[in-house]
Amino acid sequence: MAILKIARMGHPVLRTTAAPVGRERLATPEVQRLVDDMLETVRDYDGVGLAAPQVHASLRIVVLDVGAGMEAWIDPVIEPLTEELAYTFEGCLSVPGLRGLVGRPRAIRVRASTREGQPFERRLEGFSAIVAGHECDHLDGVLYVDKIVPRTLMFTEEYRRYAGELFGGEE
Ligand code: NI
Fold it and tell me: Is residue 135 annotated as a catalytic residue, yes or no?
């Protein structure tokens, strides 16, 4: 296993629509090693999620913790279950040092497969839905900074100092 280098905002791989993995390719040692390396990388960075384009692999794979430990989703498709948005300050390993307020659907349904190729479907709410939305956006070349509420982008240090008084301090 290896800790992978993370692409930063401005690298074209972060703006490219990632390719589906598919069952056949998922079973290859290359893709299984990529999943292992993504899991090791996100843990090393102490992140809640990581998408394959962030490690220069333009494939539809995310690893994330939505409450049951770090897991891998292959070819995820998410669908909003409500028009109601939840607003939280987001950050991203590819956009280091910044935070911004983003609204995302409060409840979603995800359809994906496990790294073993087992299809599953799950309903997620709240913070889990937000993490899933953020990571799956990466697969379509979208960064959270594209969605921030105007005038809420700030450095992490200033976020920690001032966001509480400005916005109630949720993260
Ligand atoms: Ni991100």
Answer: yes
